[in-house]
Amino acid sequence: MTSNDPRSEPNRADLGKDPARVSGMFDQVAAGYDRTNTAMTFGNDVLWRAATTRAVAPKPGERILDLGAGTASSSASLARSGARVVAADFSPGMLAEGERRHGSMRNLSFVQADATALPFGDDEFDAVTMSYALRNVNDPKKALRELFRVTKPGGRLVINEFSTPPAPLFRGAYRFYNAQVLPRVARVAGTNGEAYDYLNESIAAWPDQKRLAEWIREAGWIDVAYRNLTFGIVALHRARKPA
User: Fold this and answer.
1) Is 115 annotated as ligand-binding?
2) Is 89 annotated as a binding residue?
3) 1 in any annotated domain
4) Which helix (H) or strand (E) holds 151?
5) Would residue 3 count as lying in a domain?
6) Is-contact 98 87, C-beta < 8 A?
7) Are 74 and 45 in contact (CB under 8 A)?
8) Which domain holds residue 27?
9) What does the alpha-carbon distance between residue 65 and residue 93 come to, in Å, rounded to a whole number?
10) What is the mean pLDDT for each group of 10 consecutive residues in the chain (243 residues)?
11) Is 71 annotated as a binding residue?
């Protein structure tokens, strides 16, 4: 028996990154998203999240924006410090899953938001962060400018994003894994494998660490620096808004 409901069909975004298609794709994978991420990264996603939280260095009473929060695992990690965290994402399905899991945290709120037109005023947040989501925005440079706008003078930026392993041998093995193995892992984990075909394409097309650092500087941030995690599979970028 087949369904005529289009929501039951696998939704696959492409490098055009149409917001509706990307949002719909993430809506469909929300329930199994964290499980699949842990499987495909061999548990490194937990270590990367911890590194991001340490880089943000949340303090009690601070207001922090976690943009592209997905199921809010990163947001909950930040909120445990006592900071007031806004988990923002443009996928209502991901936000609903995040609220189901972490909605009981009093200092954690959920907002549906477009990264290129944030629904916040100027200079609202002590820190802003984005993990594995800037790559999915159709205008990432505009998103960096929006993050700059909503951050208080002297505030902090932390971006964790898939990147380019600098060692050629490892880079080749990593690209083979992304292209040939990763979608199969997603299907075994019960997730839309086509979404992870898109993940591979978006990682391959994404600029390397130095180029992203240049984009961050162009948006107005200062003290821009990055460090590689897990041989450069991901890179943790940090910056500050001028006081």
Assistant:
1) yes
2) yes
3) no
4) strand 151-162
5) no
6) yes
7) no
8) 13-240
9) 19
10) 40 60 65 65 85 97 96 96 97 92 96 97 98 94 98 98 93 86 69 65 90 98 97 96 97
11) yes
